[in-house]
Amino acid sequence: MQKTLAILRRELIAYFSSPLAYMVMTGFLILQGLIFYLVLAFLNNPMAPSMAPLEAFFGGTIFFWLFLLFIIPVITMRLVAEESRSGTLEVLLTSPISAAEIVAGKFIAALVFYTTLWLPTGIYVVILQQHGDIDMGPVLAGYLGVFLVGFLFLGIGTFASTVTDNQLIAAILAFVGLIILFALPLVEQILVSGSIFKTALSHMDLWAHMEDFAMGVVDTRHVVYELSVGLFFLFLATRGIELKKGR
Fold first, then answer.
1. 228-243 CB burial, b ≥16 within 10 A, e <16
2. How much is the CA Rg of the chain, to the nearest whole Å?
3. What predicted TM-score, i.e. pTM, was given to this entire model?
4. DSSP 8-state code for residue 165
5. So what's the pLDDT on residue 193?
6. pLDDT in the model for residue 123
7. Is residue 162 classed as helix, strand or coil in its secondary structure?
């Protein structure tokens, strides 16, 4: 545990001392503020469907997913790839620390940074409360969905960073992996109804998952899916580092 915390502390310092991190934070807040404004403007239209603003904000627009698809690779691309490029990974691998502890410390740091990006959006909840009562159940469920989808995507990004020593290639691999995972449910539309593959793909629809979370529905199947797939890619990342250690 102490070794994992040491890696975590080291990675958090690297994140929050990097100019890129603050550029990402600034861009994220500007983008989310614009999305929130557009959602309110759209819902104020008499012809718009009746729905809660935060229901549309949490995964109800393509902008939400575009943010994740582009920003997650930026967050994770340097985790292991930069260590490999600079040669510091060799120092870690020859020290008395396991590959699992390295992956855990780096992943948790990325998850903390990702969560930090979303914390200021809590002001949108305060703004809406000042203009009327809102149900906090769907709000909390929406943030839970944001966390779980982030957990899954960051797991994929962490694995991508272990297979190369080039940050740009790591970001591209993570982006391609996320696109494939996000687009898989689209294949469901062309499959025969009742097919086992169609049923399986329907359970992998992240957009539908976020719609449920945004409405306050916490389906344990969604929770298990996001956590299990994220952990699977972290396991692959651990195996990748162990192979490097063996070499």
1. ebbeebbebbbebbbe
2. 19
3. 0.88
4. S
5. 62
6. 86
7. helix
CA 197 to chain centre: 25
Which residue do the tokens 């159940």 mark? 137
Cα–Cα distances (Å) from 218 to 116, 125, 209, 215, in that order, read 23, 19, 9, 9
SS3 238: helix
pLDDT tens readout for residues 145-183: 999 999 999 999 999 999 888 899 999 999 999 998 888
Contact present, 37 and 57 (Cβ < 8 Å): no
Distance CA 145, CA 43 (A): 22
The two tokens of residue 215 are 């409405």
Residue 69 DSSP symbol: H
DSSP 91-139: HHHHSS--HHHHHHHHHHHHHHHHHHHHGGGHHHHHHHHHTS---HHHH
The one-character DSSP state at 61 is S
Tokens matching residue 116 = 């930090």
Task: Say which amino acid occupies 215.
Answer: M
CA distance 211 to 142: 9
Helices 62-76 & 19-43, crossing angle to 10 degrees?
A: 170
Please name the residues in contact with 32: beta carbons below 8 A apart, sequence gap of 6 or more: 67, 121
Q: Check: CB of residue 159 under 8 Å from CB of residue 77.
A: no
Q: What is the arithmetic mean of pLDDT over 14-18?
A: 85
DSSP state of 51: -
